[in-house]
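Figure 6 in text form: structure in, sequence out.
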């Protein structure tokens, strides 16, 4: 979906990581599948884990993990990710962040991932770490998405009003979290969920990748 650029730049750009800046879904799904197969668990629907902390899903969703320690399960799944795993960037990710920084729009990353994964993706995969002013990871909040705590914390650390910000997400849980935090505009990226699902969650527009978001915000260097 495309549209004209916004007339006024946002107070800040709040970006998710997995599925929004990097295409890590195949790596994550393989780790979940490997662990569940190792346990002999039949889990057909892995989409419930997309955009959410594994611990939160294990606590809130029924499954063969009932009664197990959610933190231990999450750690075991992380251990299934190969040490040399490196996701591909989502189209336009680096351009969007660099253009926002050049335009004086502060960038925050709000993610359900842990700090080590965040640093790998921002520093090595995307090479944009100096341009990201605030990072909120799974360790910074008690409740993960769709709880709004991560986005509220990012706005507080940036010193901006959520209503004046733009968030970009690839999952309905993330869209819901940003809107619940009072973020003024939330765009979807159709990398892991359909445009229909993201729009139903409240995304103002859904783009194929981040090039469309950059153009919409007038941050496309052309």
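Output sequence:
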């Amino acid at each position: 979906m495309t549209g004209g650029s916004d007339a006024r730049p946002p107070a800040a750009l709040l970006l998710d990581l997995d599925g929004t800046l990097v295409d890590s879904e195949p790596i994550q799904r393989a780790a979940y599948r490997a662990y569940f197969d190792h346990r002999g668990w039949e889990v057909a629907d892995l989409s419930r884990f997309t955009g959410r902390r594994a611990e939160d899903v294990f606590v809130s969703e029924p499954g063969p993990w009932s009664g197990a320690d959610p933190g231990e399960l999450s750690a075991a799944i992380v251990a299934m990710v190969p040490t040399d795993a490196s996701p591909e960037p989502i189209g336009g990710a680096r351009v969007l962040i660099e253009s926002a920084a050049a335009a004086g729009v502060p960038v925050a990353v709000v993610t359900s991932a842990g700090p080590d994964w965040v640093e790998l993706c921002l520093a090595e995969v995307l090479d944009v770490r100096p341009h990201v002013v605030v990072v909120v990871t799974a360790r910074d909040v008690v409740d993960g998405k769709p709880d709004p705590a991560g986005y509220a914390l990012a706005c507080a650390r940036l010193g901006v009003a959520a209503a004046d910000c733009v968030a970009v997400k690839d999952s309905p849980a993330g869209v819901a979290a940003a809107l619940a935090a009072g973020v003024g505009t939330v765009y979807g990226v159709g990398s892991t969920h359909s445009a229909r699902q993201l729009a139903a969650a409240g995304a103002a527009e859904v783009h194929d990748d981040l090039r469309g978001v950059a153009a919409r915000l007038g941050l496309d260097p052309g």
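Caption detail: The CA atoms of residues 24 and 193 lie 14 Å apart.
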